[in-house]
Please model this.
Amino acid sequence: MKTLGNAVWHAYAVFTSKKLILLFVFFLAFFQNKSYAQEKPFSAYADLSRFAFAKQKDSLKKAWVCPAVYKDKKTQAKYVEIWDSRTSFLIDAIQGNNFIYNKEIIAYVNGIISELTAANKDLIKGNPLLLIDRSESVNAYAIGGNVLAVNLGLISYVTTREELALILAHELAHNILDHTGNAMKQKAELLTSEEYKASLNDVLSSEYGRLTKLKEVLKSYSFSRSKHSRYKESEADSLAIVMLNKTKLNFNAEYFLKLDSSDNEYRTELKQPAKSYFTAFNLNLEDQWFVKKSKGLSGRNYNFSKGENLTDSLKTHPDCIERYNATKHFTSANTVYTTIPASIHEAADKMIVWNLYNNMSLTPALYRIMLLKDKNNKDAWYDIMVYNIFAGLYYSDRKLARFNSIGVVPKELISKDYYATQTMLEQIPAEQLSSAVKSMGGLPFWSGASSDSRGFKSFLTSLISREDISKKEQESSSKEFLANYPTSIYAEVADKFK
Amino acid sequence: MKKILVLFAAMAVSTGIYAQSKVFKEVNSDISSESKTIFSGGSVIGYVVFTQLEKASQDSFNYKLSIMDENLNDIGVVEFREIGLYLRAISFEEDVLCLSYIKSTELGKDYTKYKEVKKKESKDFVMTQFINLDGKILNTENISVTTSGSFSNSGYGRSSSYSYNTRLKKGLQLEGLKGQGFLMFYGDDNSSKLVKYGLDGKQLWTSSMADAESYYLNTAGSNIYMLMKNEKYTYGDYTFTSIDAATGKVGKTRQLQDKEGNQLRVRTFEADPQSGNLYIAGSIINNKRNKVDPRIKVFAKAMTKGVFTIDMDSTAKNGMKEKYVYWSDGSLQPDINKLGYTKSNKSYNVISTTYRDYNGNTYFVTDELRKHVRVGGIISSVVFAPLIVVPFMQAALGYNVYTYNNTNIFKLTPKGALLQENEIKMKRTPKGAGKADINYLSNYRSNYSLANEEAKTTYLVASDSKTTQIYSTEKRKIIRTVPYSKDGSTMLIGPAKEGHIMVIEKNTKEKYTRLSIERLD
Model:
């Protein structure tokens, strides 16, 4: 790079006429198209929660001892059971790498939390333990016990610091108001109450309609829980606004309206036809593979109405419009907001794509890359991931697991372009898939690839080299990769073959 | 004292938890499910799970039908109340689902004492239900039937109970008739009937069918055909008729035999993928060898004389086009002689299935039947000859054994030329006793075909005890090999949506069943 840069500079110094400057610009543009910046690692194997939060996991185990609250032994026992199941949930999630450590994201989010804590010392007793959940869904949650989890999907979705601050304040409010603790208590009380037991006995003593009666018991329980939950959400919204005010962070009620469309990622249409995204990869994908040809029921005009929608009374969160209306008069006059740094979004987006790939959710992983390309993202790592996705799909096909890797979703839940992409992944014949992987393996974007990306490519190549590759051969390839790149995030996949 | 108190507390806690799980367990014990695949025009288009939810009253139950598309995604639920039901058949035509059940006043009821059931008389029906894709039950029709249902006892002591079981003498068959409605065939203890329903579920006509041991209904090319099998011969003894779709009038019954009077053994009775018209294919059975059980020695004496196809362009007499190719014609000689013996692999060809491609070629898939001498039996007979009993016992077992080796594919072109197309390597079966029926080892093999209308491609799915191989007719090669056992899981292959197979992975150790719908190629 250095030598070539010097040559360009030399050319500029020698030729100064307008024509030659144009020639130089052309040369520079040509050269830029053919070069790829050296890929930087976005995450490491040690960032997975099993390793990064090992200490916290052990201390949580010790610290989260269920307090004695009830004199009634049955209620206390039930409370302990519920309490312990929460601890197990969190510990299993840490052990299962549901969370990830990312220095920049954690520092950024913790920065907002510290600001909120400092301004609300009377409410918040010390900074909570912040966990970054690898899920792509736009969400954050309070676990209680001063633990807060923020999904990568939320980090990727929010555009301003204030928007993120509102959600963090809302979750902190849940912890302050001990909503999780109270919910556990209420559940223990209800499950051991005479009324609940009587209603269950009523189910057992009935000769007819037992399932209907049991459903009614559970429905009334969920209704009561949801009603409480919705109240708690409104309560957390109110406290969050108070906390934001004290922190001098702008509040905009329109953020609630924005949250209403947060789950639309896979309903978003692409800017170009799905097929055109693969032209850059020299993939000759046939038009017919993007079109559903099945005679099946999925292509019919069905309209079964029963049991499809969650009735309003069972929703745990109040409608976003309701939340907007209840809080709009608190919207700050100041309309200057701080944009979330691009590097934060970049890290979150990459980790989401990697997480989806690691879970073999290949269509969402690919579609997210296509959406990022629509935002003019030219990071070569995503090209590498397109290769990995096609290679993964071919491997799945060989292992008769292509269907599950694609995760075929009904058309009414996704955009037309997502459906077309999903259909292509489903319909591309194995032979063409194999050719596509081979052809992509020699594309120029590999020139800027990091050594572990190239090592992972070799690992995948070994997996798909033959149909009858044995478990031992897979293990040996895995061990080789892990020995060469022990710190690489790709080790997460390689480790599965060990 | 303290110890006793602790124990008491533990019991109290566990009783509380037990009470809750007991409710779920007991409610769950009333729930039972069965699933069925929905076919339309030979393709899988979806799935139905029929669930008996709970007892709704003394006589009725609440039922749920969960309808899934071809990708196993739920698309809707229909709930209804009825007396005891068994779901038996399902069909789909013009966006209407048709489901046939056996319905009985006694199904699903449990009695604890014999005297309670001694004088019970069940009223049995065939119930046909029509549901559109808005989840609306368009109509329900009931036909009273006479069955030999009875109460049977299960369990011991206190858990002993009596429950009613019934089935129709001739199983229910349901087929869609393109653009017109549905045809349902059933046979009770008195008669066998064919009923036509319109798309609105209204009964249009009923026809009585002649007596037969087995019936096969087909509605290829918007015509109605019935193939019937009788038991005069193990192989053969098929008759065939057509039924007028408008009136239900049953046409003339024809015996399936060649011009020399040899019986025809039907292996396929289905629609030609290209024309959509019915075709029948199978083997020509030598009448001289058709009166005894098919053993290896009998088979070796030219039990099959060749292959045949019958094409039905219409239900008219001149619409039937027959084609017979005999081993003795010489087209496959010198490798296959007049007895159907293949010299190159020292075996006979037992036709297991046939199928057609989109170019009008008919493929006859055969299992190589090989005769072996039972050397051990001969030696022991010689060595123990003075004992008399031993040679006598050995002779009773026979001095031959047989195995099934590879699978062969023969192609019959539209012009009538029979060609050796390919051979698929298979795991040899264990040895079967020479004096036993050659069908005893047929469980070790399974061959069936699949077609992809869109791509105009056909496939053969050939399984032995170790693997399932998928053969592409057009590429003339194996395109997938699936081991029967993989990483502690059992892998089963079945039909799925067009151009795909259903892979069922069962792992008993880790207790999971994974379904996957995979491309054929």
Remarks:
- The longest helix of chain A spans residues 210-247.
- Chain A is about 60% helix and 5% strand.
- Chain A touches chain B through 50 residues (CB under 8 Å).
- Residues 268 and 415 of chain A are 6 Å apart (CA to CA).
